[in-house]
Backbone:
């Protein structure tokens, strides 16, 4: 079982602040993903990475940015938080096994921007 | 408790033929239903959702799904399959009546479309 950690679990912050959501995994997975989810609604892929120094934008336009300097670390940054950024952010990593790519999700960060 | 079942591990169809990927669900409140596709190395991508309204929902890449309340099903369909549709498909449900809104995923169905 892969271990993937997200911090903080909850974050309440004021408009205009810069924030970084942390995501780390200990299994050496090359591929990592960030998803945005409103309560009860669909996951939307906002960023992904194939490995170190690789970052790509996902299907949903996002004002956030990501970096991948180390395999295990895939932080997401909002330069200036706004109330429209209030959402749950889920990080995931994946590995191939038995011909199937298996996703492992972190526990999420619930962001509230006031 | 919420649950989702995808009874088929794999579905094989020939290109040009219609395809169906099955999903049944159980939820105590109002079902919000979703289909996702996972292409290799791309993670999960959202295809379509049912919240309310018409039982037939149209989504990305020509896919559609039909919500059937009496059968508690939300099968994914496409009239004419493409080889490029080959991927792993996940059905998911959340309880629209719940404040937590947690998504529950099925175990996934691999779709293989042969030329």
Residues:
């Amino acid at each position: 079982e892969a271990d993937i950690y997200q911090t903080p679990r909850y974050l309440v912050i004021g408009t205009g602040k810069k924030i970084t959501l942390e995501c780390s995994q200990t299994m050496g997975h090359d591929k990592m993903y960030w998803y945005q989810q409103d309560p009860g609604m669909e996951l939307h892929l906002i960023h992904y990475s194939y490995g170190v120094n690789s970052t790509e934008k996902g299907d949903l336009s996002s004002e956030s940015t990501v970096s991948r300097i180390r395999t295990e670390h895939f932080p997401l940054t909002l330069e200036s938080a706004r109330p429209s950024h209030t959402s749950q952010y889920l990080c995931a990593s994946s590995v191939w096994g038995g011909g199937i790519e298996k996703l492992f999700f972190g526990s999420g960060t619930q962001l509230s921007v006031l | 408790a919420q649950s989702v079942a995808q009874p088929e591990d794999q579905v094989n169809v020939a290109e040009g033929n219609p395809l169906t990927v099955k999903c049944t669900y159980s939820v105590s409140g109002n079902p919000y239903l979703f289909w996702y596709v996972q292409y290799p190395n791309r993670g999960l991508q959202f295809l379509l959702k049912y919240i309310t309204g018409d039982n037939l929902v149209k989504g990305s890449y020509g896919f559609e799904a039909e919500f059937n309340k009496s059968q508690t099903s939300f099968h994914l369909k496409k009239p004419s399959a493409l080889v490029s549709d080959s991927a792993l498909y996940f059905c998911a449900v959340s309880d629209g009546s719940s404040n937590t809104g947690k998504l529950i995923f099925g175990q996934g169905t691999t779709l293989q479309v042969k030329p």
